[in-house]
Amino acid sequence: MSFLTGIWSALLGTWIRIGTSILPRTIHPMVLHFPIVLLYLAVLIEVVRYVGGRSREMFFQRAGFWVLTLSLFAIVAAAAAGVISEQFVRFTPQTAALLSAHQTDAVLTGVLAMAAWIVRVFTKFPMDGRKSDRWSLFGTGRGRASIVSSLLVVGAMVMISITGSLGGTMVYHYGVGTPATLKSAPVTTGTNTSNS
Q1: Is residue 133 part of a domain?
Q2: CA-to-CA distance for 146 and 149, rounded, in angstroms?
Q3: What is the value of pTM for the model shown?
Q4: Along the chain (196 residues), what's the average pLDDT of each consecutive run of 10 residues?
Q5: Is residue 46 part of a domain?
Q6: Number of structural domains in the chain
């Protein structure tokens, strides 16, 4: 286990060194909207498919699968960007606790989205000889949405909403990531109201 921990630490350290040298400190707010939008879109596709998409079942099945796949890439990108943006921030004990909860919720979001994706990959369409069966995931009949995968996607959407709410609390209530809390920015203790 310590071997895996060592590999993870080395990879993370390398990413931080490279990322902090080439990416802007605002990279996390620049990319975090993609997983939010994609997970909401994945849920919307599921709702449309359940409510009235029977005539276009295969279209909504494929669209839902590929939007979910894109959301996984977006979640990883947002997490990687968050690691970089975090390096530039000066935390207080209170904001550090909020960040820890934010990170935990983000990991849970990723786990739920990945679980939904895995369930879809291993759920096969009924093979009834239709031509459309050949066009499912990798031509194997896999990738069908099920009740389980739909519930997992909804869970991921709920978790990313909670994660975003915590992130917004850190920014709007505690100023995390704003100039006053950046490591390289001077911290001002008050405002000058005199006109001299």
Answers
A1: yes
A2: 5
A3: 0.81
A4: 85 90 92 96 92 76 92 96 90 90 96 95 70 54 83 96 94 84 55 46
A5: yes
A6: 1
